[in-house]
């Protein structure tokens, strides 16, 4: 072992630019091996003339599935391309990794449960509900242990909220890197959550007067922890056991997760087993090593909790090219962690001129908001952008605006305006404007 | 909160129940269990339980986290954020190793083993000497190199206000395309749209 100690100082210099080399090497690893069914649906498949009028298709003559064939329904087999996808080269393992919501395939603002993006740090356990417990202790009058049945006897609360990973768009800081709406913006989902107000459960334990911070912790093998200030905990946090009307999916924290509306997804601790109440933050790994935002001067921002106003045009997008000239319905999503979306503007000329989009009701706070613009495509090149404004008056910034303050190494909280270049052949691609 | 409604739900968590789950450590040392460990003990554990991912010197394989080095790299084009170059508190090392490492075998290290691995990592990063006996009393007193590297959230970075709607720029210039990098899964090959 002596040789190791003698030589280790010379080994403390790590290979520089690992991420940059991966960034470039990734090309070779991605060729081939994908199923045809997994390819984005670039062009509408031509219809089979035998099924079109005046002919009678087989489904008009033969019986379809019975009511007993599918006790839990699934999407049509013709929608098999609408799936979560991942980027293999992003992470060291598949269990501490992320996948992406296919935003370009969805309508409205509710994400189907099976398509909500996943982010795990130690894989997703499927915990038996009867074996799960929530412990609340620390600066409380009565340390408590709850079963799931206990939690469901508190008054239920249902609310729509988006959940966005702090790293959504993080691969785009150094330039346009991933050519797809799913990859540039898909670390977000929005469902109707049902659970119990965190305040109700904390009141049950009784907070001591110097209780200022919470430490939620997961029951998975990553035992995720984050420090949360009491003001937020008592404001609008929920302990959720359902999403879109059914129990949470295992990958979303079954049987219990924390909701921290408007704040970065990392704090929405899944498989929640414990909440410790304290008087100061814990400065754990996920709020020091990770989820801190490095600035050009070498200092890093910590506790960058809120997700700022953001928007994305989902159609057209790289996965959803234009196939014909003429009338088009531009679709997109906007959201803000500071409240409601007030307005979304859309540009067809790379930000030179803007028009205000139509927002689909209801517009809810800290929730995805759908916007539309009807337009005519003349077959010429177009540069599409969307720009959200929230009820605080905050306007979604350009990449140049953010870059000026934060440089290229902050990883998280990229809420800058996205540009899609529509080429004369109808394809859309991810580009960066100077 | 005296006036808040009580539902009488849940049971009192006993000290034994709490002790089994209460694993978190704070920078002031709150939560640290009794125990101790040294660089040498930690090195043996690290080689056996950690080095297959993190490398014998903490340099890491592939995309696994680098644990050692990266001094003065935070202002460079490629910052290397390690325990030594970036982490503000030594207590976080103990807390995280005990709660989540080794990857896939979490919470299998004893308290003494966790002190030893922490001592090894701090020593490799030249923060403590190789003969330092790390324990629950001195771990919170260790000053990390980047202790003062963190500032409060300064956002919003752009002032609110009525945005420009017409003739907003002199010109529009494309400076980069994702397609030129070609690292997108299911690589996007040019297809001609027949309808045009």
TrEMBL record, chain A:
The keyword Cytoplasm does not apply. InterPro entries: Ig_E-set (IPR014756), MoCF_OxRdtse_dimer (IPR005066), Mopterin_OxRdtase_euk (IPR008335), OxRdtase_Mopterin-bd_dom (IPR000572), OxRdtase_Mopterin-bd_sf (IPR036374), Sulfite_DH_SoxC (IPR030835), TAT_signal (IPR006311). Pfam families: Mo-co_dimer, Oxidored_molyb. Keywords: Metal-binding, Molybdenum, Oxidoreductase. Coiled coil: none annotated. One of its GO terms (molecular function) is heme binding. Residues 303-419 form the Moybdenum cofactor oxidoreductase dimerisation domain. Its cofactor is Mo-molybdopterin. One of its GO terms (biological process) is sulfur compound metabolic process. Residues 121-282 form the Oxidoreductase molybdopterin-binding domain. CDD domains: bact_SoxC_Moco. The keyword Oxidoreductase applies. NCBIfam families: sulfite_DH_soxC. This is Molybdopterin binding oxidoreductase.
């Amino acid at each position: 072992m002596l040789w190791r100690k003698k030589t280790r100082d010379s080994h403390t210099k790590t290979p520089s630019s690992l991420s940059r080399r991966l960034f470039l090497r990734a090309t070779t690893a991605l060729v081939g091996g994908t199923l045809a069914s997994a390819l984005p649906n670039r062009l509408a498949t031509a219809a089979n003339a035998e099924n079109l009028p005046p002919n009678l298709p087989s489904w008009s003559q033969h019986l379809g599935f019975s009511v007993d064939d599918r006790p839990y329904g699934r999407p049509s087999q013709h929608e098999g391309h609408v799936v979560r996808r991942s980027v293999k080269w992003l992470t060291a393992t598949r269990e501490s990794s992320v996948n992406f919501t296919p935003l370009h395939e969805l309508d409205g603002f509710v994400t189907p449960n099976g398509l909500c993006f996943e982010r795990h740090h130690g894989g997703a356990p499927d915990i038996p509900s009867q074996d799960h417990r929530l412990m609340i202790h620390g600066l409380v009058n009565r340390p408590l242990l709850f079963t799931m049945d206990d939690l469901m006897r508190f008054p239920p609360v249902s609310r729509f909220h988006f959940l966005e990973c702090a790293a959504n768009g993080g691969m785009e800081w150094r330039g346009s890197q991933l050519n797809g709406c799913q990859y540039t913006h898909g670390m977000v989902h929005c469902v109707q959550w049902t659970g119990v107000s965190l305040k109700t459960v904390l009141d049950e334990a009784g907070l001591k007067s110097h209780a200022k911070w919470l430490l939620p912790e997961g029951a998975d093998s990553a035992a995720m922890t984050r420090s949360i200030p009491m003001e937020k905990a008592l404001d609008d946090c929920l302990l959720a056991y359902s999403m879109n009307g059914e129990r949470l999916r295992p990958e979303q924290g079954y049987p219990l997760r924390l909701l921290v509306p408007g704040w970065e997804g990392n704090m929405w601790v899944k498989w929640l087993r414990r909440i410790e109440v304290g008087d100061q933050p814990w400065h754990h790994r996920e709020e020091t090593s990770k989820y801190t935002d490095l600035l050009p001067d070498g200092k890093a921002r910590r506790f960058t909790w809120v997700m700022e106003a953001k928007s994305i045009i989902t159609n057209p997008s790289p996965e959803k090219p234009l196939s014909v000239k003429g009338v088009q319905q531009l679709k997109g999503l906007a959201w803000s962690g500071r409240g409601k979306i007030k307005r979304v503007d859309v540009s067809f000329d790379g930000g030179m001129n803007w028009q205000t989009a139509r927002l689909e009701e209801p517009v809810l706070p800290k929730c995805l908001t759908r916007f539309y613009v009807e337009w005519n495509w003349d077959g010429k090149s177009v540069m599409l952008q969307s720009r959200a404004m929230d009820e605080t008056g905050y306007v979604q910034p350009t990449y140049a605006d953010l870059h000026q303050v934060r440089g290229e190494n902050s990883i998280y909280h990229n809420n800058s305006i996205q540009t899609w270049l529509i080429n004369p052949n109808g394809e859309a691609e991810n580009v960066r404007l100077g | 909160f005296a006036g808040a409604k009580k539902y009488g739900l849940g049971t009192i968590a006993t000290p034994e129940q709490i002790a089994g789950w209460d694993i978190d450590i704070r920078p002031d040392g709150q939560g640290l269990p009794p125990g101790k460990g040294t660089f040498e003990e930690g090195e043996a554990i690290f080689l056996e339980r950690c080095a297959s991912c993190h490398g014998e010197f903490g340099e890491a394989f592939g995309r696994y986290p680098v644990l050692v080095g990266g001094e003065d790299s935070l202002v460079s084009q490629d910052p290397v954020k390690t325990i030594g170059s970036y982490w503000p508190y030594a207590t976080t090392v103990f807390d995280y190793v005990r709660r989540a490492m080794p990857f896939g075998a979490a919470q299998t290290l004893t308290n003494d083993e966790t002190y030893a691995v922490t001592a090894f990592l701090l020593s490799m990063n030249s923060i403590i000497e190789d003969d330092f006996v790390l324990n629950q009393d001195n771990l919170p007193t260790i000053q990390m190199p980047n202790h003062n590297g963190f500032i409060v959230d300064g956002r919003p970075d752009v002032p609110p206000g009525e945005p420009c709607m017409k003739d907003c720029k002199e010109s529009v210039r494309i400076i980069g395309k994702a397609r030129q990098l070609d690292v997108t899964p299911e690589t996007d090959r040019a297809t001609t749209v027949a309808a045009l």
